Amino acid sequence: ITSTAVRLGVVGRNGKGPAILGSQTIAMPAGVVAEFYASPAVTDLERLSAVLRSGLGRLPSFRTRSIGLSLPDALFRIQILEFDELPTGAADREKLIRWRLEKSAAIDMSGATLRFQVRKRAERGHIVLASVAKQDMIASFEDLLSGLGFEVWPILPSSFSVLNFYAPYLETRSGTYALAQLAGGSYSTVIVDGGIPRFYRYREIKASAREEVVGRL
Fold first, then answer.
1. Which pLDDT score is estimated for 212?
2. What is the pLDDT at residue 137?
3. Residue 207 Cα distances to 31, 34, 186, 217, angstroms
4. Which of 11, 23, 110, 119 has minimal CB crowding within 10 Å?
5. Nearest to 36 by CA among 210, 217, 182, 186
C-alpha cells in the first residue's frame, strides 16, 4: 500500500521459490494514505477498506484467509545493526535490539512496534535488519484487515518484503547484489553480500529531480 496505489498479489511456490500467481493494481484516492513517520498513515479507513475489498475481489486464485501487508519505508525507521552475540530467547533478543536502537540510533522506542530479521555472519556474530514503526499506525492496519475477515501476518516495510521475495533467486546468481526500489516520491536501496544485508538507505525524491534520479538508478 502506498499513497498512490494498492498493489495486491497472490504468492505461491513453483519449485524454485516464491512466485506471483496473480496480481492487481488499483489507484489510491488522493489523501487516503500519508507516507510520513510521525503522522497518522490512514486518514480515511472506510475508503481504504473499500479499495482493498474491491481489489481482492478481482484477484485470480485467491483462496487464503491469511494476508500480509507491505507499507512504504517512509512509515518506518530502518537500521542495520551488528552484534557479537545475541540472546537465544525471543523476549531478551527484542529487548536488546530495542535498547540498541534507542542508544545508537536515537530512536524513541516508546509506543513503537519492532520488526527485525537476524542473519548469522560466517565469521562471528550477527547482523540485524531492524525496523521501527508507530504502534498505533500498525494497529490501524491490523484492525482494518481483521475487519475484512483476514488473519494478519506481520506488517513489514516494503524493503523487507522485496528482499525476502527476491533473495532466494538472487542468491543463486550472485553472492553480492543490490536491490533498488522506486515507489512514488522515494527510493530505497539494500545491498547484500554473502546473504548478509550490509547497507540500507532511504531517500525522498523531489518532483523536479525525479527524472534525473530514475536515470541514475
1. 87
2. 92
3. 18, 17, 10, 16
4. 110
5. 186
Contact 75, 41 (CB under 8 A): yes
Q: How far apart are the first and last CA of the chain?
A: 22
User: Which of 198, 174, 199 minimizes the C-alpha distance to 188?
Assistant: 199
pLDDT along the chain (217 residues), means of 10: 87 73 86 85 90 82 78 94 94 96 91 93 91 93 90 91 89 91 85 93 86 84
For the stretch 173-180, contacts whose Cβ atoms lie closer than 8 Å and that sit 24 or more positions apart, written own/partner, are 180/217
3-class SS letters over the chain: CCCCEEEEEEEEECCCCEEEEEEEEEECCCCCECCCCCCCCECCHHHHHHHHHHHHHHCCCCCCCEEEEEECHHHCEEEEEEECCCCCCHHHHHHHHHHHHHHHCCCCCCCEEEEEEEEECCCCCEEEEEEEEEHHHHHHHHHHHHHCCCEEEEEEEHHHHHHHHHHHHHHHHCCEEEEEEEECCEEEEEEEECCEEEEEEEEECCHHHHHHHHHHC
Cross-strand bridge partners of residue 13: 18
- N residues, the chain: 217
pLDDT for 70 equals 92
60 vs 9: CA distance, rounded Å: 9
